[in-house]
Structure formats: structure tokens, C-alpha cells
Design brief:
By secondary structure, this protein is α+β, with helices and mostly antiparallel strands. It has a single domain, classed as Jelly Rolls (Sandwich). The protein contains three helices and four strands, in the order ααββββα. It has a two-stranded antiparallel sheet with strand order 1-4. The N and C termini lie far apart (about 35 Å).
Length: about 120
């Protein structure tokens, strides 16, 4: 688990660099603006259920961190809210889902609104 956690942190930092560059900023811009940041790892396992309508997973939520990297298994369970409807995200084997979370969205909003450069 420790090695996986280190690899995910490295991937997260690379993604923050790519997001910075995609916004026309220096690649370390968001990393510097966020300052010292932690890492949280959660593992949720939902085995296939013959009656999925009777199950309850995680409640609806927003991710409060900068980015979330999600590795799904073959069981669909992730849903996203789009135009007021919950849509199931079908898993794609051997891929990660990267969610741009609250900190990046708020950061981007205020830097654009106020034209701030950190």
C-alpha cells in the first residue's frame, strides 16, 4: 500500500502540473498556490450485487480536495450529477478516473475573477 500511495502522489503532482499548463500557467503554479498539501487514500469495495437497487453506497458528495484519482473495478457504481440527473459511469478496465475537485475549481474561479497570480 505504501508504494501504491507514493505512486499516486507522484501521479497527482504530474496532473497538477498538466492542469496548470493547460490553463496557460507555469507548471508548478497550482502546486505553489495550494502550498503544503496532504494526501488521503480511501478504499471502497462493492462486490457485484444481485439486487443493486437494494444497496446503498456512499452518499452524494463533492470532493473537497484538489483532485481525486479513482480506480474502479468491473462493478459499476460511480455516478455523476449531470443536468439534474444521476448518470452511472461505466468502468473502463485498467484506467483511472480523475476528478477535478473543489479546491481546483475554487482556485480557478477566484484567480480568473480577480486576475490573481500567486
Amino acid at each position: 500500500m505504501a508504494e501504491y500511495s507514493r505512486k499516486m502522489r507522484g501521479l497527482s503532482l504530474k496532473l497538477l502540473e498538466a492542469i496548470s499548463e493547460s490553463l496557460g500557467l507555469e507548471k508548478d503554479y497550482i502546486d505553489k498556490a495550494l502550498g503544503k498539501h496532504g494526501q488521503h487514500m480511501a478504499i471502497n469495495y462493492y462486490p457485484p450485487c444481485p439486487e443493486p437497487e437494494l444497496t446503498y453506497g456512499l452518499p452524494a458528495h463533492a470532493d473537497p480536495n484538489a483532485i481525486t484519482i479513482l480506480l474502479q473495478n468491473q462493478v459499476p457504481g460511480l455516478q455523476v450529477l449531470h443536468d439534474g440527473k444521476w448518470l452511472t459511469v461505466n468502468p473502463v478496465p485498467n484506467t483511472f478516473i480523475v476528478n477535478i475537485a473543489d479546491q481546483i475549481q475554487v482556485f480557478n474561479f477566484f484567480t480568473q475573477l480577480l486576475n490573481i497570480k500567486f
